[in-house]
Amino acid sequence: MKLFSLGARLALCASMVREGAALADVGTDHAYLPVWLAKQGAVRKAVASDVRPGPLERAKENIEKFGVGDLVEARLSDGLDAVRPEEADDVVLAGMGGELITEIIGRAAWLKDAEKRLILQPMTREEDLRRSLVRQGFSVLREQAVLEGRRVYTVMLCVYGRPAQPRNDLFPYIGLLSGDSAAGRAYLRREKKRLGNRAQGLRAEGDEAGAAKLLGFCGEIEALLQTEEK
Ligand SMILES: C[S@@+](CC[C@H](N)C(=O)[O-])C[C@H]1O[C@@H](n2cnc3c(N)ncnc32)[C@H](O)[C@@H]1O
Hints:
This protein has helices at residues 8-15, 32-40, 53-65, 98-107, 126-135, 171-174, 182-204, 208-229, and strands spanning 21-26, 43-50, 72-76, 90-96, 117-122, 138-148, 151-160. β6 and β7 form a beta hairpin. By secondary structure, it is an alpha/beta fold. It has 2 domains: 8-166, Vaccinia Virus protein VP39 (Rossmann fold), CATH 3.40.50; 182-229. The chain contains 8 helices and 7 strands. α4 packs parallel to α5. It has a 7-stranded mixed beta sheet, sandwiched between helices. S-adenosylmethionine binds at residues 10, 26-29, 49-52, 55, 78-79, 94-96, 100.
């Protein structure tokens, strides 16, 4: 069976999984990510978990179709509730909302271990997710944006503890992203627009100080874009 290619978003997530890791792909749906990594011989073993039986059936079908049943196990689990710490060095949470990702991380205390890695690809609420990661003591080691179709996504590689996150006011909005790639610039432009809209809303409510603060961040993002575009 010829192996499929991963889309750019999942390929970026896959590139952050450590060679030879035990992987948990939470909210796996079709299990493309663990199946693809197992076929490359890039993971030692993997749990492909999902909270819903329908997606889990799709995962099982693909695991069987691509002959990786000895390496990848499909498992019904709400978040990491049915995954044991020793089963995962690297945990991928991709294609889910930032709030859900935050909740799943918050429920799995064993992730607070400097040996574990989290690879996070939120579809929404990145700002809240970054704030919550910092609050819970996680650091973003690496972050990269990726374009797929008409959308831009961010993928964060996180670890508990080290190194201390820079206390940068822009961090909740753009994380570690910069304008050094087309995807990074697209993300920065999107965030600037979102903050601009929020500033307008605050101004309409009479919160001039709040609006000015957000417009200040918009200005800083614009300056980053200008620097990279020179
Ligand atoms: C949009 S799919 C993402 C699939 C894949 N991870 C990707 O990025 O392409 C989201 C999946 O998360 C699953 N999901 C939602 N809430 C979950 C939870 N609490 N625990 C585990 N899986 C969950 C859904 O059933 C769905 O299959």
